[in-house]
Amino acid sequence: MENKCYAKRVLTLHCNAVKAILTKKGDLKGHGTVWYQPEGIANILSLNNIQKKYKVTYDSSVNTGFIVHKTDGTNHVFTHSKKGLFFSDVNGDTDHVLVNTVDKNMSKYTVKQYSDAIKAQLVQNIIGRHSTDDYINYVQRDLILNCPIIKANILRTEAQI
Q1: Helices and strands, number each (H, E), in the chain
Q2: pLDDT tens for each residue of 97-147
Q3: Could you tell me which of 71, 11, 17, 82 has the C-alpha nearest to residue 43?
Q4: Phi then psi for 123, rounded to 5 degrees?
Q5: How many CA atoms lie within 13 A of 8 on its CB side?
Q6: Which end of the chain is more exposed for a tag (fewer CB within 10 A), N or C?
Q7: Domain ranges in the chain?
């Protein structure tokens, strides 16, 4: 995300049990200005805005998802998750770079501790962002099947990793 700045108005975003108040916008390479949440794990793009800039195709009979045909001749595919939300996985994608500015917090922990805390945060988001106390209770009572998270990982996320 480049050229981040405060927006002239706010956007209230409701998801799961969380309400996020977005106050920033940034330039997302290839997409222009988008709402930006520094603490968020994803960017939400409007299909309406994408189709104004690029050709978008979708064929439900082949189940490949939305295909954004970029002007440079490349295509970007948005596939659906098990719950039906369309997403683009940018792992290994050299066109997209995600930058975390948490060096100060990261230096408090070993690489493994930091990585485990990030995983704990991801799992907490996946299970519906339950309270930290509930999440710790679920982990300690083994209520999340095959969950490698321990209480210490969860507590590290509370330290603003």
Answers
A1: 5, 7
A2: 444 444 455 566 777 887 788 888 888 878 877 788 888 989 898 888 888
A3: 11
A4: -65, -40
A5: 0
A6: N
A7: 1-40, 45-96, 103-158
